[in-house]
Write a structure and sequence with these properties.
The complex is a heterodimer of chains A (278) and B (248). With 278 residues, chain A is an alpha+beta fold. Helices cover 17% and strands 36% of the residues of chain A. In chain A, the strands form three sheets. Chain A has a seven-stranded antiparallel β-sheet with strand order 7-13-12-11-10-9-8, with helices on one face. Chain A has a six-stranded antiparallel β-sheet with strand order 1-6-5-4-3-2, with no helix packed on it. In chain A, strands 14-15 form a two-stranded parallel ribbon. The model of chain B has no long low-confidence stretch (mean pLDDT 90). Chain B is elongated. Classes of the chains: A alpha+beta (278), B alpha+beta (248).
Chain lengths: 278, 248
């Protein structure tokens, strides 16, 4: 078993909307998990009735579980707890692909004009600006800009370069810091928490923190779900479903620098779950 | 391949569609011996058979677009040329040299006797089978392994005599040309008519059967004859799918 992922925290349920009653059945790393929300006295997680409990924590509106012994805490993302912002769940979407592929797609900029045309990218600007991914304190980081015309607040489209920074804190936790449309020096934050159900199926959970300028929580959630639903058919048609971490079965281009760095970073962590070594 | 040795399946040509089904500006999905394929026709008429997988990030090329001389992958808009499959555009880096190693896996293919043929080999020592012109039957998918379908086809019955008196099977005969091609002959009125069946082994559980009647039929009879064979093949399919061993 992949000790890196076994001893990591994974989001397994969206608890937004003050959900505190009932049960949740799910899976994590191929293991069935049973969540009892205990009528608000704090959820407990186990592998089933009569089994020992599994480590549980609530953070960023989600329930997190660790099947092993956690080596680190859940990454600290202060914007997800900052007041004066819309802090909302983007919903949970099950996707039939390795969670690693889902994360790789999350920070991929080159597909914006093709899969998210007129939302995250435009057909007239397909070139990805040069950028240099780096590992800073164990976190894989890229800082670049994306040409966008869409205005989430409903204003007339206006082309501009938007700062896009990604931090991949954990193999299955990536956060986008996107310059706010009104206050360019402040960030809207979209955190993606990928739950590996098994090696070839995952659930995308997300937590978003947006400055409120002209936006409603409903509109932000609609936008996030639109983007995820545009990605789903692409992700589910990747062959193989697991992410190749070696070999020449997938050829990279220069604009794939972040993907190449992510694959190297995963190799160095000896990630095997949801991965293929040829 | 030395004489007397069976041709390995990888080296054979298989009909995977009637040529007319592989239309310009579209992508035809198929599967052969467990491999997912796309067939696409360039505006020039040239036929391409590629692995259904972009060499960049593995997305199925069937999701993409046939641009006429190039195929464009849906995910990143990367384009590949008809013919040799070389990469012609990477939109995310228009100023860079095109990566020569970025090309899909290509299979040899040809239009021949009105069918689109593919071999999983880079080249095949045997050309596709010559099939008499006539009426192309509707292809049919069987949820059954190829040996069971082959056996059923060898017992295919048609024609006026066999229909009128099924106890006279001597009027129908079959000839197994090779493991994937069967000719079945029967008297239809005063003529002897033959159908060549072309068997496409899709994977362990699935088989597609293509067929061609060896005589030109009057336009007025065309639909009636097609429907007659379609009905007979449907009955054959029901029997084969009911009796074929199910994949566990």
């Amino acid at each position: 078993m992949d000790s890196e992922l076994l001893n990591d925290w994974h989001a397994i349920a969206d608890l937004s909307g003050n959900r505190s009653r009932g049960h949740v059945s799910t899976r994590l790393l191929g293991e069935p998990l049973f969540v009892d929300l205990n009528d608000g006295r704090g959820p407990t997680i186990s592998r089933g009735p009569g089994h020992d409990s599994v480590l549980a924590k609530i953070r960023y509106g989600h329930l997190w579980a660790c099947l092993g012994v956690p080596r680190e805490d859940i990454p600290w993302i202060p914007e997800l707890e900052e007041s004066g912002r819309h802090i909302i769940s983007g919903g949970s979407l099950r996707i039939r692909v390795s969670g690693l592929r889902a994360i790789e797609n999350y920070f991929d900029l080159a597909h914006f004009p093709f899969i998210h045309e007129n939302y995250l990218g435009v057909a007239s600007h397909t070139e990805v600006a040069e950028y240099q991914p780096m590992v800073e304190d164990g976190v894989l980081v890229s800082r670049t800009e994306v040409y966008q015309e869409y205005q989430p607040a409903g204003a007339a489209p206006e082309g501009r370069w938007v700062s896009y920074h990604y931090k991949v804190f954990r193999p299955l936790v990536a956060v986008l810091y996107k310059a706010n449309a009104t206050e360019r020096e402040k960030w809207d934050v979209v955190a993606q928490f990928v739950q590996p159900l098994d090696e070839e199926t995952c659930v995308l959970h997300s937590s978003l923190s947006y400055l409120p300028h002209g936006l409603t929580a409903k509109k932000i959630r609609w936008f996030m779900q639109l983007i995820t639903c545009q990605d789903k058919p692409i992700l589910e048609n990747q062959v193989p479903k697991r992410l190749p971490l070696s070999g020449r079965s997938e050829i990279s281009t220069r604009s794939d620098a972040m993907s190449v760095a992510y694959r190297r970073w995963l190799r160095e962590k000896h990630i095997t779950y949801g991965a293929i070594y040829e | 391949v030395p004489a007397g040795h069976p041709l390995p399946d990888d080296a054979r040509y298989f009909a995977v569609a009637a040529s007319g089904e592989v239309e310009r500006r579209s992508i035809f999905r198929s599967r052969l011996l467990g491999r997912d394929l796309i067939l696409w026709r360039a505006d020039s008429g040239g036929l391409n058979a590629w692995e259904d997988r972009c060499p960049h990030r593995g997305v199925r090329l069937a999701l993409g677009a046939n641009m006429g001389t190039e195929l464009r992958c849906q995910y990143h808009g990367i384009r590949f040329s008809s013919g040799d499959g070389r990469c012609t555009a990477v939109p995310s880096q228009p100023a860079q040299v095109l990566p020569s190693s970025l090309r899909p896996k290509i299979f040899a293919c040809a239009d021949h006797s009105g069918f689109a043929w593919v071999t999983l080999a880079a080249t095949s020592p045997m050309p596709p089978l010559r099939v008499e012109s006539g009426l192309t039957l509707r292809s049919m998918v069987f949820a059954a392994p190829t040996p069971d379908v082959r056996q059923a086809i060898c017992a295919y019955r048609f024609g006026s005599e066999s229909a009128a008196s099924p106890e006279k099977p001597h009027s129908v005969k079959f000839q197994l040309l090779d493991p994937y091609h069967v000719t079945v002959s029967a008297h239809t009125g005063e003529h002897l008519t033959s159908i060549t069946f072309l068997i496409q082994p899709v994977d362990q559980e699935t088989t597609i059967v293509h067929g061609r009647l060896d005589e030109e039929v009057r336009q007025a009879d065309r639909v009636k004859i097609l429907r007659d064979h379609n009905d007979r093949m449907s009955i054959m399919r029901e029997v084969v799918e009911r009796t074929a061993p199910k994949a566990s």
